[in-house]
Task: structure prediction
Amino acid sequence: MRIYIARRGDSLYSIARANGVTVRTLAELNELSDPARLSVGQAIVIPDMSRPVSETEVNGYAYPNISAERLGAVLPQLTYLCPFSWQIDETGGITPVDDEGMISAAWENGCAPLLTLTNLGVNGGFSSGIAHSIFTDAAAQDTLVRNTLSVLESRGYYGVNLNIEYVQPYDREGYNAFLKRMSETLHSSGYMLSSAVAPKSADDQHGVLYTAHDYAFHGQYCDRVVIMTYEWGYTYSAPRAISPVNEMRRVIAYAVTKMPPSKILLGFSNYGYSWTLPYKKGTAARPLSLSEIPQTAYSQYADIRFDDTAQSPFFRYYDSAGTEHIAWFEDPRSIEAKLKLVSEYGLGGVSYWNINTLYRPNWAVLSGMYGIEKVFGQG
Result:
């Protein structure tokens, strides 16, 4: 796998001819709905016959409304699948999702489905109150543990992924104790435990997103730890790269001092954002699917540029009303740069948020760099 950056005057035909492949191959691999439309600076994946020399694990979160076609296209590239999500309540109850088809498809493709438990409240946001109740109310915690074991058995899950966020700093020890209990309970029953944690880069990084996520404790008691290394640029932030490699590197450099690198799954963003300029605090960025971005750039006559520090692409454009925007996103170059961190730090693998939108160049870059490790053979 190689990556070519389109220059002025290039066509997909000229790129294909120079690299000994067909236009159709490049168009399909790079999701080019109109092969005649290339933007200057656009990254094109070029396939070759080289084989990856190492394997990595790949986790993917997916909402239950994912189409069977999209799920089927990605499952061969996944080690774990996390249907998102079963919601915990303050009494230890868990609200199910329609995940039975996803679980069956995962097993059929040699992919381990993980029961994803979250403290999302009825209004859709993460609830500190739910987390506090589970960590401090013995009856609620007992109920949650029983319910978890029951779901694992009845639905045929391989293990659990704890995605508990917005935990108050005073609940740090309670979270740790709960994590230890879940680890011992699940492991004694033959299940694995993974967790998702915020992207910290220091012990003294305080706040409701960070303090209660004890990296050393997660590394000790979890089999895998998803570090959510994305959302530096987010819906209500100022315009910037969503997953800048320089920031990701700071987080991983800290994380590997607190937990075994082989347990870490590096978080990947599978989307972009477009911000209105000039940016005004409090205005929301518009989410973009990675597949639509190259055509957006072309239709707006925008050259795609690349930030060398963040290792992320961006472009500026004007809409039909004459309003200026800037889009930050991921492309094969930025994906390759992030995937290199896996081998550089000896990480266990990567984790995608989320796989509901299919961006084929991502999987082409991934499979060109690594074989996909499966935890069991396909049935």
Notes: The chain has twelve helices and 18 strands. The longest strand covers residues 55-62. The CA atoms of residues 336 and 365 lie 7 Å apart. The chain has a mean pLDDT of 96.
